[in-house]
Amino acid sequence: MLTLIDLVGLLPLLIVASTAVLVMLGVAWRRHHGGTAAVTVSGLALALASLPLASAAPSSPPLMIFDGLALMGSALVLVSGLFIAAMSHGYLAGYRGPREEFYLLLLCAVTGALGLVASNHLATLFISLELLSMPLYGMVAYSFRTERSLEAGIKYLILSAAATAFLLFGMALIYARTGHLELTALAAGVAGSPDPWILGGAALLLVGLGFKLSIIPFHQWTPDVYQGGLAPATTVLATVSKLAVFLVLLRLVLVAPVFGSGWLLGLISLLALLSMFGGNLLALFQPDLKRLLGYSSIAHMGYLLVAVIVGGPLALETTGVYLFTYIVATMGAFGVIMHVSGTGSGEDASGLHHYRGLFWHSPWLAALLTLSMLSLAGIPLTAGFFGKFYIIALGVEGSRWWLVGGIVIGSVIGLFYYLRVIVTLYLREPGMQQAVADAGRGRVEKLALLIVAVSILLLGIYPVPFIDWVAGLAWAARLL
Amino acid sequence: MELGFYLSGLVAVLATVGLISGSSPVHAVVYLIVSLIAVALVFFALGAPFAGALEIIVYAGAIMVLFVFVVMMLNLRPEAKRDPLWLRPGYWLGPSLLALVLLVALVALISDGQAGMTIDGELITARDIGLTLFGPWLIVVELAAILLLAALVTASHVGRRNKPRGNRNRGGTR
To answer: Where are the transmembrane segments (chain B) (predicted)?
Structure first.
C-alpha cells in the first residue's frame, strides 16, 4: 500500500505533477506567458530543493525505488528541466499562438522522467517512458504551422510507437518466462541459465530503449527530429529524455543478470562501436548545427554504453559524471541556438551559416558555444574532459580494448567537426551586419546561460566536489 | 481453446492489415472494430474474461463509437456521392468475412465444451483489479492520469484552428 511516509520519497515527482496541474488551471483561468513560465520555474526549483528531503525518505513506495541512482537521475532531470523552462520564456516570446501549453507539456515530460529514473517495476517503467515521450510529440510539433516541425513530430510519434511495441513485446516475453514484473524479483527469476525467450525479450527491451537513446541502428529519426523540432523540445530530447532512459537501461543491466550474458553484452558492444563511429562520421560534414548535435549525441551515447558493458562499481560513478558533463555542454549549445533563434520568423536558426561571425556581434554567445563545443569534444579545462577521462579509465579497467580504441578514434573524428563549428564562429564576414535579435530576451535567460557557462568551466577546472557527490550517490546505490 | 486462440489471433492480424491498407476512414474503423473484437476473443481463450469484456466494452464499444462520430462529423465527401459507394461488396465483404470467422470460432468453442465447464486458475475479478490499481499501483494510475493530460493538451494544441485564438498578448493572424 501507498502510505503517507512513502509520499516523502515521491515529493519531487508530486511537486512537478501538481505544478503541471496548477499551470493547466492557470491557463484555463487566464493566459499569461510570463506568469506561466514563473510558476513552472518555481515548481521545478521547489522540486529540486525537496530532493534532500526525499533522499532521506525511510522507505520507497511500491513499484518505485529511491536509491542513489534515482536521486542522481532526479537531480539531473530537474536541473535540465529548470534550464529549459528558463530558456523557453525568451524563445517562445516571438511565437504566434498560445505559448503556455509548452510549459505544461514540459512539466509532464519532467514528471515522466522522474518516474522513469525511480522505476523498479516494468509497469512504472513503461508508463513513465510513455509519459516522457507523449508530451514530446506535442513539444516537437509545437509550431505545427511550419512544415518541418509537424513532420518531425509525426516522425517521432510513429517511430516511437513502433519502438514502444518492441519494448512491450520484450516485457511480455520476459514476463511469460519469469512471471514477475518487479525488477528485483525478475532478476531472481532469470538468475539461472537464461533461455532464448528471456534473451530475446532482453534484446527487444534493448531495441525499445535503444530507440530513445538513438543508438545506431535505431537512429534514423534523430537528425530530422532534432532539426525540425523547436529548439527547447530538442533540448528536452537531448538531455532529459536521453539521461532518464540511459539511467533506466543502466539499472536494468545492474539489476538483471540476463543483460550480463555473453552474447547480449557482445551485441551492446557492437552497437556502442557502431554508434561511436557512425555518429561521428555522419556529423563530419554536416552544415546544420542542430543535425550536427543530433549526430554528436549518437556518438556520446555510444561512449556511454561502455559504462553499461563494463558494469561494476565504477560504472555508476562514470555514468553520473559523463551524463552531467554531456548535459551541461548540450545545454550550452542548445541555449545558444535558442537564444539566437526565435519562432517569430518560423524556423530556427539552425544552419551553420547563421552562426558565421557570431563572435563579432555577440562575443558572449560565441564564447559559450565555443566552450560547449570544446566540452563535447572533451578538451581539458572543460567539463567534457573529465567525462571522457572516466569513460576511458573504465574501459581500460575492464580491458575492453576495442571499445577504448573506438572512443579514442571517435574523439579524434569528433574534434574535427566541433572545431569546424568553432572556426565558423570567428570567421569575419564582410558586409554582414545582421545582428542577432537581442530584444525581448530577459535577464533570466542570460542568467541561465551564464550559469551553464560557469559550470562547464568550473567542472573542468575544479570538479572534486561534484565527483565526490556522484561517488557518494553511487556508493549509496550499490548497497541496495 | 487453442483453435479459438490462433483463429482469433489470425483474424486480429488480418483485420489490422485491412485497417492500415484501406483509404476510407469509415472502412478502416470497421476493420478496427473487428480487430478489437478478435483481440477480446484472444483474451477469452486465454482465460481472462474480465480483460476480454473490458476490451469489448471500452474499445469496441465506447472508443470506436467516438471514432465513427468523428469520421461522420468530418464528413469528407458529399452525402449523395458516398452512399452508393458504401454498398459496394468490396467494402463490406472483408470485415464481414473476418467477423464470420470469429463467429465460427466462438460457436465451435461453445458447442465443443461441456456445459458447466469453468476456467481454472485464479479468476481475476473487477474487485481484484480495483484493489490493485488503487492500492499498491496507485502511482501508476496517477502517472497514467498525467499521461492522458499530456495527450489531451497535445491534441488540443495541434488540432487548433488555423487562426490562433485566445491569445491576448499578440493576437497575430496568419
So the answer is: 6-22, 29-50, 56-78, 90-111, 131-155
